[in-house]
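Suppose a colleague, Dr. K., hands you the sequence of a protein chain of 345 amino acids and asks what its three-dimensional shape might be. Before reaching for any lab equipment, you can write down a predicted structure in token form. Begin with the sequence itself:
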Amino acid sequence: MYKKGFASDNNSGVHPEIMFALSEANKAHTVAYGDDPYTKEAIKRIRDHLGEDVEVYFVFLGTAANVLGIGAMTESFHSVICAETAHIHEDECGAPEKFNGFKLLPVETDDGKLTVDAIRPHVKGVGFEHHSQPRIVSITQATELGTVYKPEEIREICDYAHANGMYVHMDGARIANAAVSMGVTMSEITGDVGIDVLSLGGTKNGLMYGEAIVFFNDTAREEFKYMRKQGMQLASKMRFISAQFLRYLSNGLWQETAGHANEMARLLADEASKIPGVEITQKVEANGVFARVPREIIPELQKEYFFYIWDEPRSVVRWMTSFDTTEYEVKGFVELIRKLTKKKK
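The predicted structure, expressed as tokens, is then:
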């Protein structure tokens, strides 16, 4: 049995209520390819959260949501501005560029967050045929460094992008963690502040699999349903994705699961920061903790609680908490850090 650790919220299991929803959806036959009642109800539920005019397309995974969502608004001669830490740049094996042909323009950041000042130098060569044309700004909420964009920060980026003929995409793999962290609705950090397309995640917060691409305006091509099919993301038994989102977005489950993960991250950061030699390097605003720890204790720590090294030269590691992380596990992990740190002195 794989022991729980702090490597990734992708490593967690499926929330019992999501598993029950899957079981319920499995009881009878229904129409395939999204014409089932679960999908229709799930789309309504997403519209309840994000706006009645949004268009929703379910897909299997986050990479597909990013690739297809951005691809709907780009041509091969376009460029996409993103943080250098962005998933589309670092963790998708070049899929966005391979399948869409556009150019990624990564921007160095200290905290994973783009700003208008950081974006501006890349908005150049507009109308010049020798230069890729800036088309999309892609931001991640919560960021890959565990920080979150406040509504006003997103609005500023969207206003600038729109004024310059660009659109804004949000990778919302952990949007629930960000929203709960700030005490806002998902709408307040997406459509309400100008986001054009959202990759709506759930897998990292208790779903078995499945994401949704949400378009907020006419940037969605009328032909997008064909793009999804060609992108191999049209699920025949779509109800098993939809049923998960239907339960996830009902009765506050998404807030409960994200809130618990965030709480465990704060507890981990608070307790670990009390240990001499441990330094928390980023604000803990969602469910990720980034810490500088003594290099020599990392291998021994990983034997008991697996996690990833984020920046090896600086001895910075990443610890992720999940909806099912327990206080007992956090305290056990912190106690081992304390023990190993003392031992190495």
